[in-house]
Design brief:
By secondary structure, this protein is mostly helical. It has a single domain (about 5-205), classed as Hypothetical protein af1432 (Orthogonal Bundle). About 60% of the residues lie in helices and about 0% in strands. It has ten helices and no strands. It has helices at about 5-15, 25-40, 45-55, 70-75, 80-95, 105-120, 120-135, 155-160, 165-170, 180-205. The longest helix is centred in the C-terminal third of the chain and has 25 residues, at about 180-205. This is HD domain-containing protein. It holds the Pfam family HD. InterPro entries: HD/PDEase_dom, HD_domain.
């Protein structure tokens, strides 16, 4: 068993305990996105990209308070110190954090971040948003709520805004935050679909459809 297969086995049980917005199917889709972007970025280290994809949510702050799971798995994998640090840096740069993302400094970090953000938009992104909102007991929408565009990472994570508000605070911003050419290309149709969905939702909740 190679190191990527070992990592996949180690993370599987963790993701299967999460809600549908961050389960192992999410990881599989992010991996497919990353593989598509890798084809356009031949200089990138495929092993580092795949390991970072598998590990990027095992210690997600939305679900846990520390990085023990991430650190434990990294400690079991046969990696150089440089590889381990690179993976940790990538994971740190993936999170949106209410618009307070760290810079993705390497091509591997850019690929993983775009791949993850692609799964946050489009049809799947819509489904994931409402799955997470449902798991957290959030409203579908709240027309009295104003989207926030200036906030700390803590404010972003702790305020329980309605699911539709999340589109304006994050999802509709992601197309223009893609950092690879392939990521930008893949984001176009997904972004357009979200705009169509929000228009149809507005029509239906106002009795116009």
């Amino acid at each position: 068993m190679n190191v990527i297969e070992q990592c996949q086995r180690l993370v599987y049980a963790i993701y299967e305990q999460m809600d549908a917005s961050h389960d192992f199917q999410h990881i599989e889709r992010v991996l497919m996105n990353a593989e598509a972007i890798l084809q356009a970025e031949p200089t990138a280290d495929e092993k580092i990209v795949k390991l970072a994809v598998y590990l990027h949510d095992v210690s997600d702050a939305k679900y846990v308070t520390d990085k023990s799971a991430q650190n434990d798995i990294l400690g079991q994998l046969v990696l150089t110190d440089a590889e381990r640090q690179h993976i940790e840096d990538i994971i740190e740069s993936v999170s949106f954090n209410g618009g307070n993302s760290l810079e993705a400094k390497t091509i591997e970090a850019k690929i993983v971040r775009d791949a993850d953000r692609l799964d946050a938009i489009g049809a799947v992104g819509i489904a994931r948003t409402f799955a997470y909102g449902g798991a957290k007991g959030r409203k579908l929408y709240d027309d009295t709520e104003e989207a926030r565009f200036q906030m700390t990472a803590d404010e972003y994570r702790t305020k329980s805004t309605a699911s539709v508000t999340h589109f304006y605070e994050k999802l509709l911003l992601l197309k223009d935050l893609m950092v690879t050419a392939k990521g930008r290309e893949m984001a176009e149709a997904r972004h357009a679909f979200m705009e169509q969905f929000l228009q149809q939702l507005a029509n239906e909740k106002n009795g116009n459809a």
